[in-house]
Amino acid sequence: MGERRQYQDVARDIQAIIRAEALSTGDRLPPERGLSEQLGVSRSLVREALILLEIEGVVEVRKGSGIYISDTPQGSGAPVRDDIGPFELLQSRQLIESEIAGFAARMVTKNDILRLRETLARERAELEQGDPSHDGDRAFHRQIAEATQNSVLVDVVEELWRKRDQSPMWARLHARIFETEYRRAWLDDHEAILAALQARNPEAAKAAMGRHLGNVRETLMLLSDVEDPAFDGYLFEPVAQTG
């Protein structure tokens, strides 16, 4: 059995609050910000904990309203074991891939730059065609690792993406997000990373990658915030789990 993750502890703490306040089916949970302050943890940890409780069937989201106690008996939902919280994963990517980008700026070849340019063009095409996949995004990050000329670093980046692809929590987070305009801003971030690599500027490349993954994290926090008045609660739909 894997090591217990912090968001799992926060989820159990939220369940303790539910019991202490005698909340029952149909009752609304305290606001996310209030839970964060009460438990002394970040909102991203509370968000991850609530996603876990949603997957487990403890809570449910109602259109344009908020998160409520589910009529599913607590603990009867699908268990999530050893999953990594999406914001925890993004934080690790920010730390690791920033260093990789800085090193890539020292080692990058002309062929690497040409391949990255082609991948950016592919990303633009995917965006214009409304392609929901992130294949070009993934390829761009992998190619930066490849530009280090170090296969171990390539494996590290691939493993981070594999964890994302296999994460029920990541899938549920994205089930909360409908609009795609944020991808244009991320494409601009990729342009800045490529410019730093082409200039062979390690510090600029490291900083650009750090900003990019920080932007990704903040954007996903914003777009998945059910307490935001602009949030469309109908976007919460069960995510089909594949074997």
Structure description:
- By secondary structure, the chain is mainly alpha-helical.
- The protein folds into two domains: 6-80, Orthogonal Bundle (Arc Repressor Mutant, subunit A), CATH 1.10.10; 86-223, GntR ligand-binding domain-like (Four Helix Bundle (Hemerythrin (Met), subunit A)), CATH 1.20.120.
- 62% of the residues lie in helices and 3% in strands.
- It contains ten helices and two strands.
- It has a two-stranded antiparallel sheet.
- Strand 1 (59-62) and strand 2 form a beta hairpin.
- Helix 2 crosses helix 3 (43-55) and helix 5 (110-128) packs antiparallel against helix 6.
- The longest helix is centred in the middle third of the chain and has 22 residues, at 86-107.
- 30% of the residues are buried.
